[in-house]
Specification:
The complex is a heterodimer of chains A (198) and B (207). Chain A is α+β, with helices and mostly antiparallel strands and 198 residues long. Chain A is built from four helices and ten strands; from the N terminus they run αββββββββαβααβ. Classes of the chains: A alpha+beta (198), B mainly alpha (207).
């Protein structure tokens, strides 16, 4: 009886532990760097795969919830390769501690293009980039690289969103219009009227 | 017999407290940023859909424009329904639904045009590569066949989806006809108002 009780207890504990993992890995496609530190070596980036996400209607996304500080001076991510120019949104928030910088590199053959996205503490920077080739993202604390002072720990969130081919196909003007149209209502195709309709 | 249950209770209590610590170590710090990101993505997607309807409407004089409230299709309920508040209220509610169905057709039309533009650009890029050498030309020729097949498959899927949507639109129109008939007998509302809209959709959208 005693062994049966211990067995049941262990089973319950196991179920609780398993349930906990399921909760922690819910459908958010997020790399949790603050739990398991991601490598900062650009030659050994962590692969991030963009996936469909509940709450994001168009395309695929991924994200990083990360920390930097002390010996942990950088986190590096590989987003994949794109054969054509793709419009992607990068959303960087420096949540606590210090400002954050994401350096986005697109390597297409011999051509290398770099963009820097910097967010102050508490600030969110949302940037659209058109990228082609192999895409790497490195996150650093800009203060650490501009002075010799020791840094406080940075807590940051970084999201990658690729809305899809149809957004790539928009011209620059059309894309700007879509951004400006935020919140604008769709045209009404049909009107209910009294009397004789035209 | 009490002892084993006390042990179970103690283990569960310890695991429960450990679980709380392990499950959310600081995730509450990150969650708001995730919510903001998804809200921003959703707002952008809505803006894109609405812009798509707008752009497609530009090329159709019968479609409504935000800057011109007098534009677009006008649809009347009939004099009997006009004078009955309940009838006209029901009529307006159903016209809203039909308007959304029509807007979906215009939005999908725009998406179709964008996808075809992408496929056209891919074909052009490949032909550029294919012109460089004979082996490359052979590879490109095969890939062109694949792209042409993908285009045809997309058009077939588009037509199937569009015809299904037009079918739904027609169902909504017939439903509205029944509602108006409940209030006012023998109006032939569908024949006078619903059918022209259905025929417009049937002629304009399928490829």
């Amino acid at each position: 009886m005693r062994y049966l009780t211990y067995f049941l207890a262990l089973g319950l504990v196991g179920l609780l532990a398993a349930g906990n993992d399921v909760y922690a890995q819910s459908n958010e496609n997020i790399v949790k760097d603050y739990r398991n530190d991601v490598d900062g070596d650009p030659d050994r980036p962590t692969r991030v795969r963009l996936k469909a996400q509940a709450g994001v209607d168009m395309g695929r996304m991924a994200g990083v919830w990360g920390t930097l500080g002390g010996d942990d001076v950088a986190d590096v991510f590989f987003l994949g390769k794109t054969p054509d120019f793709a419009r992607m949104q990068f959303d960087l928030t420096a949540l606590e501690g210090s400002s954050a910088m994401a350096i986005v590199t697109a390597k297409n053959g011999d051509e290398i293009v770099r963009y820097q996205i910097e967010a102050a503490i508490g600030e969110t920077k949302t940037v659209w980039l058109q990228l082609k080739g192999k895409i790497l993202v490195q996150v650093i604390q800009p203060e650490l690289h501009s002075s010799s002072s020791s840094s406080t720990q940075l807590t940051y969130a970084l999201y990658f969103w690729y809305p899809g081919d149809t957004i790539d196909a928009l011209s620059e003007t059309e894309f700007d219009n879509v951004e400006d149209y935020k919140g604008r209502e769709k045209p009404r195709v049909l009107h209910a009227v009294k009397g004789v309709a035209k | 017999m009490k002892r084993p249950f006390e042990i179970i209770f103690a283990i569960l209590l310890i695991m429960s407290s450990l679980q709380t610590v392990h499950a959310t170590p600081g995730s509450e710090v990150f969650d708001p940023s995730f919510g903001n990101m998804t809200a921003g993505a959703s707002a952008f997607a809505t803006a894109f859909y609405n812009y798509s309807v707008f752009q497609e409407c530009v090329s159709d004089p019968d479609c409504g424009m935000p800057d011109d409230p007098g534009s677009g299709f006008e649809i009347g309920a009939g004099s009997c329904c006009d004078e009955n508040n309940d009838c006209f209220s029901d009529f307006e509610r159903h016209v809203d639904r039909i308007d959304r169905a029509l807007a979906t057709l215009y939005k999908n039309e725009r998406t179709y045009a964008l996808i075809m533009k992408i496929q056209g650009a891919r074909m052009t890029a490949m032909r550029g590569v294919g012109s460089m050498s004979a082996p490359a030309a052979a590879i490109v020729a095969r890939q062109e066949i694949d792209i042409a097949k993908a285009e045809q498959d997309f058009t077939d899927n588009f037509n199937n989806k569009t015809l299904a949507n037009i079918g739904k639109l027609n169902d909504f129109l017939l439903e509205l006809d029944t509602i108006i008939d409940d209030y006012c007998a023998d109006t032939d509302w569908y024949q006078r108002n619903g059918l022209p809209l259905y025929l417009h959709a049937r002629m304009k959208f399928p490829k």
